[in-house]
Amino acid sequence: MAHEMIGTQIVTERLVALLESGTEKVLLIDSRPFVEYNTSHILEAININCSKLMKRRLQQDKVLITELIQHSAKHKVDIDCSQKVVVYDQSSQDVASLSSDCFLTVLLGKLEKSFSSVHLLAGADAAEWDWLCVKCQQHLSKA
């Protein structure tokens, strides 16, 4: 398999420990569709979900992953290649189950070229990490 070495898994408890050590040491990427991200996401996560066009541009190296991160962030992100990167989506259980052509595989591969530590949140089920999430609608209604 072409994506055998892409990313390692990380469990929710380990993510919590990383976040408690300082959010500046962790780059969280939510690769779910924007509507799901906008409804609820882990605090400080950057939403990166791509169209077929953007996936192709990443595959052809016409856009750098660091540019995509900056473009997708709501604020300027200090990118440091020593940061730990944790990616999650709505249903991926492990790296081995990903097809070699899916967006998540492409994303993980590009991240590994720029960062030394890239992880997929294991069993990324919203029920497991829901307590880490920002409930955007509730937050907006209080503002």
UniProtKB/TrEMBL annotation:
Molecular function via GO: MAP kinase tyrosine/serine/threonine phosphatase activity
Residue ranges of domain Rhodanese in the record:
22-134
In terms of PROSITE patterns, this protein maps to: RHODANESE_3
A Pfam family it matches: Rhodanese
Q: Which chain regions cross the lipid bilayer?
A: none
**InterPro entries recorded:** MKP, Rhodanese-like_dom, Rhodanese-like_dom_sf
Q: What is this protein called?
A: Dual specificity phosphatase 16
Gene name, Swiss-Prot/TrEMBL: DUSP16
